[in-house]
Please model this.
Amino acid sequence: LMQAIGNSIITDHPEKTVLYLPTSKFIDKVIFAIRHGHLARFMEQLEQIDVLMLDDIQFLAGKDKTQEIFHNIFNEFFSKNKQIVITSDQAPKALTLLEARLQSRFTLCLIVDIAAPDLETRKAILEMKLKQKGHMFEDEILDFLAEHITHNVRELE
Model:
């Protein structure tokens, strides 16, 4: 999903600079910047970014200093009409180990809950993938696969 969003932004707006990071990598970069006295430089580098994409934001839980820095980054991006795309395995209100001010910011944004596809959608995905590869299977086989592969769409491929 994050890759699709990033690719779409790059395709539709090639002038935009997109940075994708797993939150664990973001935390590592913040810690490195703090330890080596380069926090200002790190923040300046982020100013060059138009879209910041952080995967698994729940990993900020318990990282007070990093949360504070991310809060500042979030405010800076928001004030300049830049975008931040984040993913989490929980809804913002369920991220109770994050600072209340971050939870509050997250609830102001567009929130999309992406659930596992239903049976009909899984079958359509299978049909599309097979068509792309020039293959065909009988409906019974497609039905069987769509019924038994329910949680991870990538397994359908």
The beta strands are 18-22, 51-55, 83-86.
